[in-house]
Amino acid sequence: MTDSNIWRLSATEIVTRTKSGALTAEDAVAAAVNRMEKANPALNAIVDSCAVEALERARALDKARNTGEPCGPLHGVPVTIKVNVDQKGHATTNGVVALKDMIAPGDAPVVANLQKAGAVVIGRTNTPEFSFRADTDNLLYGRTHNPWGKHISPGGSSGGAGAAVMAGIGALAHGNDIGGSLRFPAAANGAVTVKPGLGRVPAWNPSQKAERGLLAQSMSVQGLITRTAEDLHLSMPSMISPDPRDPFHVPLSWRGVPVDGPIRVAFTKNTFGYELHPEVEAALDTARDALVEAGYQVENAEPPDVFECGRIGYRALMGEVWTLMKADIDAHGSQTIRDIFEVYFQEFPPFTGDDLVRMMAKRSHYAREWSLFTEDYPLVLTPFLPQPFFKPDRDTEGAEGVHEVLGCAVYSYTMNFVGLPAACVPARVAPLPQGPQPINVQIVARRWREDLAVDAAAAIEARVGRMCETLWRLMDGQEP
After folding, report:
1. Does 82 qualify as catalytic in the annotation?
2. pTM of the model
3. Catalytic entry in 157, 158, 220, 235
4. Which CATH number fits the domain 3-475, given the four candidates 1.10.1740.10, 2.60.120.560, 3.90.1300.10, 3.40.50.720?
5. 181 in active site
6. Which NCBIfam families does the entry link to (predicted)?
């Protein structure tokens, strides 16, 4: 492989070469930085370059290896960090103009864990204002574009992360997810991710002035967006390393006890009255067939209370947002984000007062029902969205736009409300009139078993192929 193509390597391939001495950390990072400088101007995925400090850190890693120090599990892997998480010396802006000078005094646990493992941060990625859209645009940094084309939103809120990693800007991209913010960008860009379950990845920002709301704590998780499923198996064990600053972190191993096979998978195409697009159905069928070929026992079965659970969960979250965030949104948000939130509150009427307390209590009921269901079916294969991914700014088009973007995404935020792991993996390229675009499916796993969801994603990927290869041909002007 020539130096100009090192950026194409997966994280797993990079680590194999850097540990053996076939590739230096400096060369791996330099290739990613060069790719960033070439590809990012058209995408605006990276909004804060860390190129200088990244190259210095890579050289230090090489020096340490050459003097006999052990290499970490992510030695020399270029990564990006989302701008809503603290990285010492950089602004944690959350996409908000008023926060542009809020410099982090220290690293968040995810940043510390990645760097302890030997990863190298090359840049920070864009997010919408307050990290609360399924699209990525803001007045501070501007719009992020999808490398598949400007006809598709890059997703959000980790839209910069999804666009960057699929364009080859770093092998791993940090993101987070309170209602779908890892999985929306994965679906938009054809990437792979797993939304970890509650408590799996330690989270805290040293810059924060107050604790987050209870639902924000229990629904929001930190994770990674990657180009391959195997890179999640490589990197997530480092992400879940304990940090005492998160008192509710669950210190379990990444790999759980093997499940007696064949593993049963519940398979559903139910979209609760929303139209299931033929391309999404084709992707689901492909994913099902891939799992059957890989030895899974796939059965048609309906999981419990998805629509009711998802809608109640998001209405409860909107109640907490109304109480704790609305004043800041009104004071510091753009007119665009204020308008979007007004429609959010119409689509998901906030629970308040006694109703909010009751619905937060009911969360345990839904979680229990899902725990019982996953005793029989350790995995559940579902749509992620019922339609192909939406266009940029669709959520600015009133009630109809927000309904298409978030209203129909019940399979997404249901998993946040009940705290279960959920992988998102591409299963098809749809040849749509506006241009080709990836179609992802979702794989839910029983509690604490992110590894099972990623195993299933790898089985689907083995049949479909790595979506990044198709995208890079398209970006080079070739037939996808």
Report:
1. yes
2. 0.98
3. 157
4. 3.90.1300.10
5. yes
6. PRK07487.1
